[in-house]
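Q: Structure tokens for this one, please.
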Amino acid sequence: MAKKLLIVESPAKAGTIKKYLGKEYEVAASMGHIIDLPKSQLGVDIEHGFMPKYITIRGKGELLAKLKKLAKAADVVYLATDPDREGEAISWHMAKALNIDLESDCRVTFNEITKTAVKASIKEPRKIDMNLVDAQQARRVLDRIVGYKISPILWEKVKKGLSAGRVQSVATRMICDREDEIENFTPKEYWTVEAEVADEKSKKKFNAKYFGENNKETELLKGEEAERVIKDIDKFTVTAVKKSEITKNPPPPFTTSTLQQDASRKIGFSTYKTMQTAQTLYEGVNIGGKFGTIGLITYMRTDSLRISVEAQREAIGYLTAEYGKEYVRPRQYKANKNAQDAHEAIRPTSINITPSQIRDKLSNDQFKLYKLIWERFAASQMAAAIYDSVSATLNSGTHTFKASGSQIKFKGYLMVYEEGSDDKKEKMKMLPPIEKDEVAEVKSIDSMQHFTKPPARYSEAALVHALEENGIGRPSTYAPTITTIVSRGYVRRIKKQLVPTELGMITTDIMKKHFKEIVDVEFTAGMEKELDEVEDGKLGWVSVLSGFYPDFSKNLEKATAAIEKVKIKDEESDVVCEKCGRKMVYKISKFGKFLACPGYPECKNTKTIRNETGVKCPKCGGEILSKKSRKGKIYFGCENNPKCDFMVWDTPVKNEKCPQCGGVLLKKKGKSAKIYCTNENCKYERKPSK
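A: Here is the predicted structure, written as tokens:
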């Protein structure tokens, strides 16, 4: 038996770390939290200093017994859970459960899981940081009180199964408020005028847009005004030309928030999928060769922009060799004032492990995300991009038009990375070499009617940005918050937009009226600051709760009496209940949507929702259904499962059979898109038509 025991959170991480340590180490996994508040009750003694009543999580007793046995046999026990508040709390619970002296140097943290980092960290163990533990404890108790005190009221007054949460309720409110803005928006008419003109010397054409009267910006509100401008235009005289050099600096390396935003915009990942994939890259992937199993990125829950001197030095060496000295500029970035600087920014553990080198060692999702992280980090240490820019002012009588253009003079960091954006921008071309006082001929001129648009609904990326900007939540909370409000039926995803449901709107209205502070953006941000002060040792965790609870308790009493019962009509389906003949309705549970008979409790019939593909199973002739895995990934399986084991990830093609053997065709998406036959003995495949 090993003399030293190292406990981490996940088996994947344990497997990676085990390979870096000698035989004297046993590495075990706690599988996340082992101790927590009970689910069946509040679990907080409000009358006696908000003391939490921790218990061993159901189903974790056997694991805890195993860890106790390993700890008893070891001379030294190191607790190496994740390097954040949550991880610190897990280590604290573990230390108490395993009878480890809390004053001993038992805590080890890894910002990255590489052989060098792991061995260096084990040489510098420390005590458990009780400020971090208290900050997590304050958040856990605070969220428990809010959830367990408000949720029963929502159950009784609105609908069974509803829940309220401190951060999730604010996020839902933001989405509902945006929907109100959209519904109440009154579009206003305006017009633009654009002319295609030709340079007098080169005869090259370029576009000029109406700016205003006599060099003063003027808005055209009616079609008649636009037509008057067009009638007045004869020829243009170039009255001003401004040439400049524009420098565009690279974006900093990723934080959790910016990673989630860019992954959403550039590779279509949900916040949940981004964090799940990042977790696997952090915990370790076997890439073979001299590296073997290695964590490919640093810890992925961070709002710091700092990078280590070693990582920067390695990046400079790689980029200089790859692109030349003129493309390299070492940079350190400053995070916003609310950021916690405990970890580095998200970066590859070694820039020398390029995405292309390990493409065949990664899953498709891992490759996409690693490539994004690698490129962003590389770009952050590169020179700025330089553009040549020209802007011109053109006049015809009293009317002023503007034209501008630019082109890249030096690509700099754009050699490896371009930041994603929610805004679609036109690519600008360079203007011809026009000069002041020359005449430009009008080739064509047109007006166009427009209407102002309402604010856009939040995408996941935009919501994460808004939450971070308003100081709501922390890196670890963004993804679970969005997952929760969608799974609880408050919000739906429609074409990457987050749209509130009737349930979300009604619940938010109740919360705004009776629990104003809970859904108030500024109040929630203020609570986050107080939790940060607990972490910094400036504030006691009990005092945070003592300041919050009295007013909250009064609101609870008032709300219980004042809230009237709300009846929400369930959405009706086309499915007829075979037991009583009623049309079944859609219901939502913590496992997702299902069908239920509206005649409950007389009729208790329920059904899972069948998403039929219209394609028959090639093995048994049953219907192939679209299904979701536990992690939310779409796959296709036979309705007769488990009797029939047919299952594929690619989409079955409807109304078409294989022209060679008559088998079922599948459509594969992505870079290697193709349509191919499921029959292993048939080699038919083709490229899909565009």
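A few notes: The longest helix spans residues 130-157. The chain has a mean pLDDT of 91.
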